[in-house]
């Protein structure tokens, strides 16, 4: 399936978005973290250590991912928030079958990505003001996409009419 990549802008920062189905869009946490940090990975992993965030991610997976391993998650959640707790996206995805946060490799466009629901939660933790700028441009992007899809649909309808005449 072809991957569609888009970009939104919030306060001068480009934030990558990609999707394969126009329903599940993944927004770059790495780009969002650049708003506050010169080392985005450390910022993201600091966010992922919080028990509240781990519980949020687990709930998101339970609601959206039928393959998520809930019983294994309970063990994972028990350690969340402790001093020794570390969150590995690789382990989250391999051991729990998580799909809401992923890593993509590549020089241009690589990084840590999360489903839009999760990415907006991260943006809110980082800066509520910055989150609102992200939402504003994200809505603009969705409006532009809807306009293009509507235009294509109308064009196809008119062409079909011509073919029948």
Write the layout of secondary structure elements.
Layout lengths: L3 E7 L2 E7 L6 E3 H5 L6 H9 L2 H14 L5 H10 L9 H8 L4 E4 L6 E5 H11 L1 H37 L1
Antiparallel strand pairs: 1-2, 2-3, 3-5, 4-5
Whole-number mean pLDDT = 86
Rounded to the nearest angstrom, the radius of gyration is 19 Å
The helical percent reads 55-70%
N-to-C order of helices and strands: EEEHHHHHEEHH
Parts with pLDDT < 50 across at least 5 consecutive residues = none
Class from secondary-structure proportions:
alpha+beta
How far apart are the termini?
36 Å
How many extended strands? 5
The number of helical elements comes to: 7
Largest sheet, order of strands side by side? 1-2-3-5-4
Summarize the structure.
The protein has 165 residues and is an alpha+beta fold. Helices cover 57% and strands 16% of the residues.
